[in-house]
Design brief:
The complex is a heterodimer of chains A (356) and B (591).
Chain A: H1 15-48, H2 52-97, H3 99-122, H4 128-155, H5 180-206, H6 212-243, H7 246-255, H8 257-278, H9 282-308, H10 324-353
Helix pairs in contact in A: 1-2, 1-4, 1-5, 1-9, 2-3, 2-4, 2-6, 3-4, 4-5, 5-6, 5-9, 6-8, 7-8, 7-9, 8-9
Chain B: H1 13-47, H2 51-86, H3 88-121, H4 128-157, H5 162-165, H6 168-172, H7 177-201, H8 206-237, H9 240-249, H10 251-276, H11 284-307, E1 312-314, E2 318-319, H12 328-334, H13 353-365, H14 378-381, H15 387-394, H16 397-400, H17 411-425, H18 443-451, H19 458-464, H20 470-478, H21 480-483, H22 494-509, H23 517-525, H24 548-555, H25 572-586
Antiparallel strand pairs in B: 1-2
């Protein structure tokens, strides 16, 4: 037993509830984060190419990116909340060990966010180099933030390296010694950008108000990014799998039936996606990618549990039940979603009837 | 002790928390009140059929969106990040006890985001009734977020019944819930007006500018009026200890309150100017000045709220350094290091005094003290203390200064901590005598060293009591807090007070001190703010290379030197002696 692992606090409902909530919101966060990353990357590419249609595409994406950031952050908050309920004692510890980097996410995100708003609101008057800076900066920041997250979420799984704290209590550690880290990071970045490409293609399909040429460009570039990167992603996925510690790897090789099944489903879906991508079947791809993200999230959960097996499992958390606050949450959630749906419907009809 | 301590000797975690949360609070309250401002300004425009006013509202909504969504939203995440870095144990308590409170708040956050986007992007493109309804939805969701957060934040200051039953609702509807909710609501409405000054200052249409400036000024003044009784109510429900801190027992809070009062004055004065004078006086500078006033006010409020909770992070439950109140006895018996997780040594002994002391400092004091840093530097705070005085003080810090947690550890650990501070941080050489605490000299001197030297040097007391007779000194010792609210009462026995009074009285006659006129003058006039070579605000380094002549001259014109020093009022011989003393010290003489 590792003596550095803090004693966790009791939870107010059976752990399964939090697991369900976590697995509900986390994949949604991934979808938005992917859309945000991919749109930013494609917008950057579109600005850097000297092409009028692509310039139009860059602006259209620029209008969407701030929304994506808002909801990616929002869903990230929910995911982080439920993560902390189940794994807080591990997560806080790894966060402290890399405190400087972890905290830097906040100012970085503010810079990226404002930068995309400037890009959006000022686009028509921006000189190309300025526009390029305003969109490449957020792209780099997103990649950096992803790296920080990959570090933290792997460091929290490795209590055995925590003793490095005694040589460096200033919060500037990372988890660079972990050989899984590069593959894991790549897996998220490549996959994320691929899904982001698909998002851009879908955008081209659904935003009927956009210029016809821009819509076509969105679909063309988006699907190319999606297809190529999905191919790369399958390779990276194998690398990642192979880099996992043996006990974790074995879970997917028959050690655990569900994990193995998930891997098989994931692999087959990815291959279908690759072919559908080549055939430019946008809606088919979108319809398959969403469930695939859920499958991948569940696999990720197996990886986490595999790592933590010697140290901790959420079943061991003490439960001091208090269900009335949960009822409040569910009631408010239902009412809130109703309000959201109502507002979105009103907005879409208003925007449709007053299209400029 | 359960979690690693993020060691930031220069800034300290507390400063980072303060920075992020003050900015966040300043924007997030605007995010509530500003929502109502938008709907009502829009309604005014609709009723008066005033297109310019509607256009102003739309622009204001854009500013609002950029401010609250980006800065407000991300600094909100930032607070969460920083508290979990600086005090993970307390964050864990908040998350685990209130997870569904946070989750509910998150739902409101979703509704807010959707509503403000729809409100802004559909401005003028939606039928007005629906648009107004969306605005109302925004405001209600934002206020309900405040409602939830207010319960959880208030819980930390006044956990109320939760301490007994651990129940969500007892903690949530805690004793300060309602007053704080009213207070924050009014403050948020006030901020709505203050921020609107900024947007109105950009208006070109002078007619509209004047109308909207006055409209906004009314928001500010009326809300402030309403906030005053709410604030008073809030104060009245604070626990006695917290109220005592707010009313003078805590030097840091006093400083914050001074800034707060300055902020209010600027805020009210600026608002009145805008309300009463021609709109042409309403420049961007004025509006930013008012904004700055409001910022100071909010900053002082936040700081005070946080600091009045000291020494606890969750009142009566967990100290700021994450140690649980209930563990005190056990830690004193068994020792702290022995049961702590994130320490490099398990016990304090002869061989590891420095290491053990360092670990104790990081785990128990670093939560509020930096090391040579910018906020509450332990090196400056202990500059006057010798080992025995500090050791004695450590045994009583919570009793003497309520806002500090008690030292929690066994005797050996206490010695290690004192050793670390005196030897490790100040580099002073001394011998730890086996008896440890015995200070040299008379019993009265010993008592004096143990209780008073901590905050003021002997010379200061001597100077202050110069015209007092012994009876007055003895009486003063009965109620020190009446002399200065920041001074804790002396809890000695009557005999001890007599001895101490004798000693202080003897200072006057010179029996207690060595006789160097120049040193005496230094202690009397300079030592409150300066040390000589090392410690707080050292004097010698600033005078390096000065000869006696130059020193003597400067003593005649202190008020014209940098740093806002008062003129030195002393007879000529005293200045001569002081100059001689400083010059000698400069040449490496008496230190």
């Amino acid at each position: 037993m590792n003596t550095l692992i803090p004693t966790p606090d009791a939870i107010p409902a059976a752990w399964g509830w939090f697991q369900v909530l976590l697995m509900l919101v986390f994949p949604l966060h991934l979808v938005l984060m992917n859309a945000m990353l991919g749109s930013t990357a494609i917008a950057a590419y579109a600005v850097l190419r000297k092409d009028e249609t692509l310039r139009g595409l860059a602006w259209e994406l620029g209008k969407v990116i701030p929304f994506l950031i808002a909801f990616a952050v929002n869903l990230g908050v929910a995911a982080l909340l439920f993560l902390q309920v189940l794994y807080g004692h591990l997560f806080y510890t790894s966060s402290v060990l890399m405190g400087v980097f972890w905290l830097s996410v906040v100012p970085l995100l503010i810079i990226a966010y404002y930068s995309t708003y400037l890009f959006d609101f000022r686009f028509p008057t921006l000189a190309r180099p300025v526009a390029a800076v305003l969109i490449c900066l957020p792209l780099l920041i997103f990649l950096a933030i992803a790296f920080v997250y990959s570090n933290n979420l792997t460091l929290m799984l490795n209590p055995d390296v925590w003793k490095a704290y005694f040589g460096n209590p200033g919060g500037t550690l990372l988890n660079l010694g972990d050989r899984v880290l590069p593959a894991r990071y790549l897996h998220f970045i490549v996959g994320g950008t691929a899904v982001g490409g698909l998002f851009v293609a879908v955008l081209g399909r659904v935003r009927k108000g956009m210029d016809q040429g821009v819509r076509e460009a969105a679909e063309r570039v988006g699907m190319r990014v999606f297809t190529v990167l999905t191919g790369v992603q399958i390779a990276v996925g194998f690398l990642f799998l192979a880099a996992l510690p043996r006990p974790v790897l074995l879970l997917f090789m028959g050690g655990d039936m569900i994990a193995t099944l998930l891997l098989a489903i994931g692999l087959v879906t990815a291959l279908i996606l690759l072919m559908a991508g080549m055939a430019r079947r946008v809606w088919l791809c979108a319809g398959l990618a969403l469930p695939l993200i859920y499958v991948m999230s569940f696999m990720r959960d197996f990886v986490r549990d595999g790592y933590l097996k010697p140290h901790f499992s959420p079943e061991s958390l003490q439960v001091v039940p208090q269900y009335s606050p949960m009822v409040m949450f569910i009631v408010v959630l239902a009412a809130g979603l109703a309000a959201v749906v109502w507002m979105l419907r009103k907005a879409s009809s208003a925007l449709r009837t007053t299209r400029k | 002790m359960n979690y690693p301590v993020w060691y930031l000797p220069f800034v300290g975690g507390g400063t980072l928390i303060a920075l992020i949360s003050i900015v966040h609070v300043f924007i997030s309250h605007f995010a509530v009140g500003g929502g109502l401002y938008l709907v009502l300004a829009e309604r005014k425009g609709l009723r008066e059929n005033n297109r310019a006013l509607l256009e102003f509202t739309r622009k204001h909504a854009k500013f609002f969106l950029l401010m609250t969504m980006v800065m407000g939203g991300i600094t909100g995440v930032g607070i969460w990040f920083i508290i979990s870095l600086v005090n993970p144990a307390a964050t864990s308590v908040l998350i685990h006890n209130f997870v569904f409170g946070w989750a509910t708040e998150w739902v409101f956050f979703v509704v807010e985001i959707v509503a403000i986007f729809v409100y802004y992007y559909c401005f003028g493109r939606m039928d007005p009734r629906t648009h107004q309804a969306v605005g109302w939805i925004y405001f209600i969701a934002a206020w309900l977020s405040l409602f939830i957060i207010n319960g959880i934040v208030g819980f930390m200051l006044t956990p109320g019944g939760w301490l007994g039953d651990g129940n969500f609702w007892s903690g949530f509807f805690n004793p300060s819930f309602w007053p704080a909710l009213f207070f924050r609501t009014f403050v948020s409405l006030m901020l709505a007006g203050v921020y609107a000054f900024v947007t109105t200052s950009f208006l070109k249409d002078t007619e509209l500018k004047s109308v909207m400036t006055r409209y906004s000024a009314r928001w500010v003044l009326l809300s402030l009026l309403a906030a005053a009784p709410a604030g008073y109510w809030y104060l009245s429900v604070l626990p006695n200890q917290a109220r005592a801190l707010v009313e003078g027992a805590s030097p840091t809070i006093m400083r914050a309150l001074h800034y707060g009062i300055l902020g209010i004055v600027v805020l009210v004065a600026g608002t009145l100017v805008l309300l009463l004078l021609k709109p042409s006086c309403h420049t961007r500078t004025v509006s930013f000045l008012v904004l700055a006033g409001a910022f100071l006010f909010m900053g002082a409020f936040e700081w005070t709220r946080e600091a009045s909770r000291r020494p606890y992070v969750i009142n009566e439950y967990m100290y700021s350094n994450a140690v649980l109140k209930k563990d005190r006895g056990e830690l004193e018996r068994e020792g702290f290091l022995h049961g702590a997780r994130w320490v490099s040594t398990r016990a304090a002994g002869e061989s590891n005094l420095l290491e053990a002391g360092r670990e104790l400092f990081r785990n128990q004091c670093h939560a509020c003290h930096t090391v040579g840093g910018i906020n509450n530097d332990i090196i400056a705070r202990t500059a006057n203390m010798e080992y025995p005085a500090l050791l004695g003080y450590l045994g009583r810090i919570h009793e003497v200064r309520y806002f500090m947690p008690p030292f929690m550890g066994n005797e050996a650990e206490k010695e290690a901590l004192a050793y670390y501070i005196v030897k490790g941080l100040h580099g002073k050489d001394f011998k730890v005598s086996p008896e440890g605490t015995a200070a040299a000299g008379s019993k009265g001197k010993e008592l004096f060293t143990g209780h008073c030297i901590i905050c003021h040097p002997e010379s200061l007391i001597k100077e202050r009591t110069a015209r007092w007779d012994r009876r007055r000194i003895r009486k003063g010792l009965d109620k020190l807090s009446a002399l200065n609210p920041a001074m804790p009462d002396y809890d000695g026995t009557p005999e001890e007070k007599e001895l101490m009074a004798d000693y202080i009285h003897s200072l006057k006659t010179g029996a207690g001190e060595s006789h160097d006129k120049g040193k005496e003058a230094f202690d009397k006039h300079c030592a409150m703010c300066h040390s000589l070579g090392q410690g707080v605000n050292p004097l010698l380094p600033r005078m390096s290379g000065w000869d006696r002549e130059r020193i003597r001259k400067s003593l005649d014109m202190l008020d014209r030197l940098k740093g806002g020093m008062p003129p030195l009022q002393a007879p000529n011989e005293e200045k001569e002696a002081l100059a001689a003393f400083l010059s000698r010290s400069l040449q490496g003489g008496v230190r």
